């Protein structure tokens, strides 16, 4: 089946928004250090661009998770594929995500990370689909709220492709 990508958010729009969030985080954490936790793979492009625009000291770590079972499983229990290298104890953690959808993965993940004793923990996502929310998740920094459409680019994939697009697009089928 042929597919096309319709541009939803241009590279310029995304870059400008990331600059804004970077400035906001730099203001909010003035005089402190932040520890960015990237949820692979989707969050990686966003995290790199964001980190470049934060002016307070930054450290980085990565983790990879996958949801157990299928959509029919209610709890959204998450399996850790790759855990963080560093402890979170006493750090100002900001979890960086590509998109918050149902909220299942993230609510479980945040709960688990909170148990590791960070000094503070916030959530930052490039995209949010509020209409799709099943579990309430508090998002502290949001790039864009988008409608319930399947998007790719800037780290987001369709069958592992399109992560490298420098803009956000909607996948359309002919
Ligand atoms: P949830 O919030 O637990 O439903 O999981 C969100 C995850 O589903 C994200 O981290 C993405 O990996 C994936 N996802 C959700 N919506 C999209 C989309 O529109 N495009 C690509 N991946 C998506
Ligand atoms: Mg993700």
Descriptors for this entry?
single chain, 174 residues, alpha/beta, three-stranded antiparallel sheet, 3 helices, 34% strand, globular, binds inosinic acid, binds magnesium ion
Report on this structure.
It is globular and about 50 Å long. It starts with a strand and ends with a strand. The chain has three helices and nine strands, in the order βαβαβββαββββ. The protein has a single domain, classed as 3-Layer(aba) Sandwich (Rossmann fold), CATH 3.40.50.2020. The strands form two sheets. The protein has a six-stranded mixed β-sheet with strand order 4-3-2-5-6-7. Strands 1-9-8 form a three-stranded antiparallel β-sheet. The model has no long low-confidence stretch (mean pLDDT 94). With 174 residues, the protein is of the alpha/beta class. It binds inosinic acid (IMP) and magnesium ion (MG). The site of inosinic acid has 16 residues, from strand 5, helix 3 and strand 8.
CATH architecture: 3-Layer(aba) Sandwich
Number of domains: 1
Mean pLDDT: 94
CATH class: Alpha Beta
Précis, in short:
With 174 residues, the chain is α/β, with parallel strands linked by helices. It has a single domain, classed as Rossmann fold (3-Layer(aba) Sandwich), CATH 3.40.50. The protein has 3 helices and 9 strands.
Ordered list of secondary-structure elements with their pairings:
Blueprint: E1 3-9, H1 11-28, E2 34-40, H2 44-52, E3 58-67, E4 78-82, E5 92-100, H3 104-114, E6 120-128, E7 141-145, E8 151-152, E9 168-173
Parallel strand pairs: 2-3, 2-5, 5-6, 6-7
Antiparallel strand pairs: 1-9, 3-4, 8-9
The chain binds inosinic acid (IMP) and magnesium ion (MG).
The site of magnesium ion has 4 residues, from strand 5.
